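The protein record quoted in full:
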Amino acid sequence: MHQVLHILSHAEVPLTREIISHQQESPDTRVVIADLTVDAPDYDWLLEQIFAADSVAVW
């Protein structure tokens, strides 16, 4: 299974949500979202996800 990591570094943009939504519809793709706009992001978890992902998108 292909794993895609989306790192959200800004307030959500409609295009971002649309792209993520389309990818989530694929049965062969696991979509992981890391929201860095929260008060205390978990950077250890983020680092693990970066190395586990097949592709990474930063928004």
